[in-house]
Amino acid sequence: MSRPSSVAEAVDGTALRLAAAVAVLVLVLDQLTKWLILEVVMQPPRVIEVTGFLNLVLVKNPGISFGLLGGEAAWKAWLLSALAIGIVVVLAMWLRRRGGRMPALMVGLIGGGALGNVIDRLRFGAVMDFIDVYAGSWHWPAFNVADSAITVGVAVLIVHGLFFDEQKSK
Known about the structure:
The protein has 170 residues and is an alpha+beta fold.
């Protein structure tokens, strides 16, 4: 049996189903880890040293990546949530036309991560971050599973599109 082409995958929805499955997995892992940190590990909130370069912390980020657009205004949570949902919808529409396993996996990572952070914004008015990576006194901004999935998804999607896109060579 031959492998379906990317166009056939897009038409029959295989890529969208794969992306949705990955998104659900990321969403569940993200929300499960956040629940565990909030309800079990960080009772009471504190810094927990895991290694010489990794701590568990509890940070409420009302902004976007790296704390940009921070502040406590309630409208920001709604605006950023709407923006994230819009991006997920656009990616799904693109994937439906585009197809392909690798793009589907990456869209799933991005979508699941974005929706995980949307849930936080709507529940708490901020995204719950808890992974603190550091070197000496320099700390990377705290992040979570959703942020990691988004970062990996975007990076691999860009690299794949630039260097490994089978549709470009046709």
